[in-house]
Amino acid sequence: MKTAVIVFPGSNCDRDLAVALEQVTGRAPVMVWHRDSELPDGVDFIGVPGGFSYGDYLRSGAMAARSPVMQAVAEAAGKGVPVLGVCNGFQILTEAGLLPGALMRNAELAYICRPVPLIVENSQTLFTNGYEQGEAITIPIAHHDGNYQADEATLDRLEGEGRVVFRYGEKVNGSARNIAGILNESGNVLGMMPHPERAFEAAHGNSDGRRLFEGLLEAVGA
Amino acid sequence: MKARVFVTLKPGVLDPQGKAIHHALEGLGFSGVNDVRAGKLIELDVADSTSDDDIAEMCRKLLANTVIENFKIERQAQA
Question: N or C: which end of chain B has fewer CB within 10 A?
Fold first, then answer.
């Protein structure tokens, strides 16, 4: 599996994501700079990492969503290439219009950094076939703007179509319906606030995030 | 020409920041504040030929996230 990780000024989880991808696929991802307008040929997966792209200026993810490379990511996503956005990556994907809704300031205004309980609400996706339906897992979050909001009709639609993939197991940041991760309509773009790459091996305290990457590899094929 | 763009949260969208400001005002003893909503003011210095439509396009494409925010454009008369 050939993978790419997008790097923006201010990304800080790009290398964590690269380590996770390399360990699972046996191949280092291509790191693609935000000014590049093309992705490497034949990429099977694109990771949009966490961090504080462009210093979170204007709105989290707003500037990154309009960078040249995101045009290429949108095109690839349109062709069905799996795209995973983690944390700031999720914010960027909503700002780019690849996922519905918006991520607002946490309800208690605090930056929250801790492991949180998650429920796998849909295990029949490219990203979650390594989990059981309804499985309770623990993955860390680290964000200030993770409060997912969309209008009621959009939320109902996401729920009805099985596109709420991860839900917090407790109240965390004020997210509508405790939503932690959602899928696009075609099922190949996943945005999530929790960091699976930070729960990847025993040294991280738990490895619940590892199965996301392993499941993806299985779904996409070597 | 100078133009001001006011970006505000749509009605009904929760505003944790506004809420915190509200609490702080009450803590300072200002009673009678019913609600607080926080937004952004962006000042643009643009060519005189720039139309309102051009600025609205800037708002839709970047300055505001129209999923959650409204915008209002105010042109300033030349001093």
Answer: C
CA distance A61 to A51: 10
Distance from C-alpha of A13 to C-alpha of A51, rounded to nearest angstrom = 6
Give the model's pLDDT for residue B78.
64
- Count Cβ atoms below 10 Å from residue A219 Cβ, excluding itself: 16
Tell me: the pLDDT tens digits for B48-66? 999 999 999 999 999 999 9
Please list every residue in chain B whose beta carbon sits closer than 8 Å to the beta carbon of residue A104. Answer: 13-14, 16, 68
Cα B11 from Cα A92, distance rounded (Å): 24
Distance from the B31 Cα atom to the nearest Cα atom in chain A, whole angstroms: 22
Interface residue A144 vs chain B (CB under 8 A): no
pTM of the model: 0.94
Task: Tell me which residue in A58, A102, A107 faces B68 most closely, judged by beta carbons.
Answer: A102
A1 touches chain B (CB under 8 A): no
Q: Which residues of A are catalytic?
A: 87, 195, 197
State the CB neighbour count (10 A cutoff) for residue A44: 16
Residues of chain A with pLDDT under 50: none
pLDDT (tens digit per residue) in B2-49: 999 999 999 988 888 899 999 999 999 999 999 999 999 999 999 999
What is the Cα–Cα distance from A202 to A14, expressed in whole angstroms? 20
| DSSP states of A10-37 | TB-SHHHHHHHHHHHHSSPPEEEETT--
Q: Which residues of A touch B65 (CB under 8 A)?
A: 59, 62, 95, 102
CA dist A115 → A51, A107, A112, A194, A196 (Å): 17, 18, 10, 8, 11
The reported pLDDT for the residue numbered A222 is 61
Rounded CA gap, A8 and A10, in Å? 6
CA distance A51 to A87: 7
